[in-house]
Amino acid sequence: MSLVSIKQVKKSFGPLDVLKNVSFDVNKNEVVAIIGPSGSGKSTLLRSLIYLEEIDGGSILFGDVALVEDGKYAANIKNITNRMGMVFQQFNLFPHLNVKENLEIAPKMTNRMPVAEIGKKSEELLEKVGLTQWANSYPNQLSGGQKQRVAIARALMMNPEILLFDEPTSALDPELTGEVLKVMRDLAKEDMTMVVVTHEMGFAKEVADRVVFMDQGEIVEEGDPAEVLVNPKQERTKAFLKRTL
Ligand code: ADP
Ligand code: MG
């Protein structure tokens, strides 16, 4: 069953066509890895899903509602984007709030969860990402891997139906990527629906149900990770993988 359906999405920045008729679906409980060279439009695509970018044409459907249909946005955008969570390369934590407060700020501000539940949920999630002892620490006291685990726990606070990751380990020292990938792997095991932009080909091969290769604003090839990453059909995919591996 398709949870997110992207149809012929177009986006330009001035004269630059960043997304050219991009279409693909994400099924419920599926992990989709998006790979591709820098500048191919991967971040723009993810950001469009949660309305951090406005697209110029095409449709984005979420379940049975349209965030945008034929370029026309819904009136209740927030109701739709609230159903998704996003994790960024640079963590985007609030530096003046401690770890627990970082998790609790959004649900508190939006009144979308009973206050008593917010504290319980944040404790639960900090335990899940192994950061219970760091609840009262501030982001600048944490390693990059710990910061990213806070960001993941924060994204989970509102019970999102899908989690979007934009190069979640690209800002981390190599020895810290493992702890973040482990949390993501655990989420995949729990059947969380995820779209992960990543350069971690090992992770894509092992965890993703499907790999999408983007280049120059287009989806060039998609399919089973074992196929796309090991036996790519398109020349552009072959060339990219040769440079990456
Ligand atoms: P990727 O994530 O695959 O590296 P991006 O989606 O970040 O690619 O960027 C795609 C292209 O769009 C790049 O050429 C980038 O420079 C350009 N771009 C992204 N955001 C903006 C912006 N806000 N204004 C102008 N150009 C942008
Ligand atoms: Mg990017």
In short:
The chain is of the alpha/beta class and 245 residues long. It has nine helices and eleven strands.
Structural class: alpha/beta
The general outline is: globular
The helix content is 25-40%
Q: Which sheet architecture does the biggest sheet show?
A: 6 strands, mixed
Question: Kindly state the mean pLDDT as a whole number?
Answer: 96
Strand neighbour order, sheet with most strands: 7-8-9-3-10-11
N- to C-terminal distance: 33 Å
Bound molecules: adenosine-5'-diphosphate, magnesium ion
* Structure summary, number of beta strands: 11
The percentage of residues in β strands lies in: 25-35%
Tally of DSSP helical segments: 9
The helix/strand order is: EEEHEEEHEHHHEHEHEEHH
* Alpha carbon gyration radius: 18 Å
Low-confidence stretches: none
